[in-house]
Amino acid sequence: MKDPYRSAASRDPRRLIREKGIYGLKNHELLSLILGKSRKEDITELSQRIVEHHRCLAVLDNADLEEIMDVFGLSETNAIKILAVFELGRRFYSRDKWVFIRSPGEAYEYLKNMSFLKKEHLRGLYLDARNKLIRDEIIAIGTLTSSLIHPREVFRPAVEVGAVGIILAHNHPSGDPSPSKEDIEATQNLVKASKIMNIDLLDHIIVGNGGYSSLKEKGIVK
Q: pTM for the complete prediction?
């Protein structure tokens, strides 16, 4: 939506930076600076559409290159720029903001934006001894099978960052957060692996549409 109180010239991002500094720019104006130009659409309007489309998602963790190219009609170069700038922001944000997760409810509050995903995403939250989040990682994307939920892929990041606990999470695009038979079996295998690795599997959260299931609360993770 265009701002009726400001002319295009008054909202020119480069001019605003010179006059007021970078902090005066809106999110979509910052993105327009990264993209530069588009032959198909006004770059400011395009940037606003991208920001609004992904506002409810977890800093674009959920989008892939082909999705961005298809949805917005972008070149591969500009789609890569978008992924790169959001990933850079995510890394700096995660580094500076301390997050503590001490219960299934707190885990869901952190993860609930996964309910908007159209594909299944397997995600690992890696915690230190105080339950502070030290890494948030997408482990796999796609229909989750035993090959995707493999202990090697789940525990490797924990070893890399020295985590003592893991909260595993994935979404059900159907909207129903109830664990499937495969979810339960995979979780039980990971519990066994966690005892060998001496890294606690604290919970497995399944995110649905407006709710979640905690396999810790269900007694499957002990």
A: 0.61
